[in-house]
Amino acid sequence: YFLQAVEKKFPDDRDRLARMSLIEGSRKVNGVAELHSELVQTTILKDFVEFEGISKFGNVTNGITPRRWLDQCNPDLSDLITRTLKLEKAVWLKDLSKLEGLLPFTEDKAFRKAWAAIKQRNKERLAQHVQATLGLTVNTNAMFDVQIKVGNRQTLNILGVIHRYLTLKNMTPAQRKKVNSRVVFFAGKAAPAYYIAKL
């Protein structure tokens, strides 16, 4: 029925019918990120957008789950935010737009000092975990570059790490002293057949 409806709407467009025969239709198409949604709508599934209309296509991202990834994993930061906003934690955790209330504190010395201290304690906790589980010593004064994702972005990131490493190797000791130290962490998952992500 789907292809018959396409043929009825675009009666002389056999190429479109061939392109659209690949998919029998679906309820919603999620591009995840806004950029991906736009690409899907204007390139890959353009025919479907013209047939179904734009309302079927959107982007919904998981984003940050405040309760789990902020409040439970970083309770000190969660407490600082709660104290600074002077709101009940349950209020801002359910409405992240309330975090805009932190903007007036971006240049506040006491707030910045507290924020930096929390970051440093968390880096030290992670370094202790790495030492205990992997036997590796991590410089907690370095910038931590943490990427926990799936697939292609990790491939791009590791290429960036290799590039920075090779650049450092070509520097003089004096030049290297001017470069900010960086520790890079990778974690993720991939489907069994996703060969590139498993490299």
Features:
extended; mainly alpha; 199 residues; 4 strands; single chain; 10 helices
N- and C-termini, Cα separation = 43 Å
Tell me the radius of gyration: 24 Å
Strand order of the largest sheet: 1-2
Helix content: 40-55%
Residue windows where pLDDT falls under 50 for at least 5 positions: none
Secondary-structure-derived class: mainly alpha
Order of helices and strands: HHEHHEHHHHEHHE
SS summary, helix count: 10
Mean pLDDT: 85
Largest sheet: 2 strands, parallel
Into which percentage range does the β-strand content fall?
Answer: 5-15%
* Beta strands, count: 4
Q: Quick one: overall form?
A: extended
Explain this structure to me?
About 55% of the residues lie in helices and about 10% in strands. It is extended, with a radius of gyration of 24 Å. Helix 3 crosses helix 4 and helix 6 packs antiparallel against helix 8. The strands form 2 sheets. A two-stranded parallel ribbon has the order 1-2. Strands 3-4 form a two-stranded parallel ribbon. The mean pLDDT is about 85. By secondary structure, the chain is mostly helical.
Task: Quickly describe the structure.
By secondary structure, the protein is mainly α. 53% of the residues lie in helices and 9% in strands.
